[in-house]
Amino acid sequence: MPKILNLRIFVFLFLALFTLNSCKNLENLPGGDARKNPPDPKERVKKNLEEGKGFRLDSYLQGSKKGGDFMFASANELWRASLDTLDFMPLSSVNYSGGIIITDWYSDEDSFNESVKISIRFLTNEVRADALDIKVFYKKCNQVASCKISQKTGSLSAELKKQILSKAAIYKKQNKDKNFKPYKGGTVDTTK
To answer: Which of 34, 53, 58, 137 has the largest count of CB atoms under 10 Å?
Structure first.
């Protein structure tokens, strides 16, 4: 019992000394002395911005590019091509930031005992052959509802990859043509 009492007294004294010590530094806090800060809020904001103590939201909204450029899903050609290729299938999980698309089990009207599920993992944003990892899973069920699921490599994943890459190449060309600005004459500054 005396050890706990001694510990409580020590903690109390430590906190009291810490609090008293921090009170003497109040004059160094920003905005602590009204004589050093302008009374007008607009002038205080201007002073804070000049000293680097704040930021203005309207400068970001007006197009000043101080932050990074973000590539959203609609601008990524591989992503768009993959979704367009798989648009006939129900999607189970789609995560652009994680770089994965997983479809739900799909079967057509002719073969209701067989289903297919496709997962596409994006290894890079560049339109190239090794940018996608496509896995195709088959599920075969008999009348008793016992199902066997297996992953198969073969023509379907190769055909999907070929179709996605060709669509992505078309989208990339369209984006490049849309952003192309012809040279309008004059001199070219080659010193930059």
So the answer is: 137
Query: How would you classify the pairing of strands 91-95 and 147-152?
Result: unpaired
In the chain, the DSSP E strands lie at 91-95, 100-103, 114-122, 132-141, 147-152
pLDDT band at 85 (very low <50, low <70, confident <90, very high): very high
- Mark whether 174 and 105 lie in a shared domain: yes
Same domain, 122 and 86: yes
Q: Which amino acid is at 175?
A: N
Residues in the chain: 192
Mean pLDDT of the chain: 76
Answer yes or no: do 9 and 95 share one domain. Answer: no
Strands annotated E in 24-159: 91-95, 100-103, 114-122, 132-141, 147-152
Domain holding 173, by residue range, is: 73-179
Mind listing the pLDDT tens digit for each residue in 151-168?
887 788 889 999 999 999
pLDDT tens sequence across 26-80: 555 555 566 777 777 777 777 766 766 655 555 555 555 544 444 555 668 889 8
Please count the structural domains in the chain: 2
| Structural domain includes residue 133 | yes
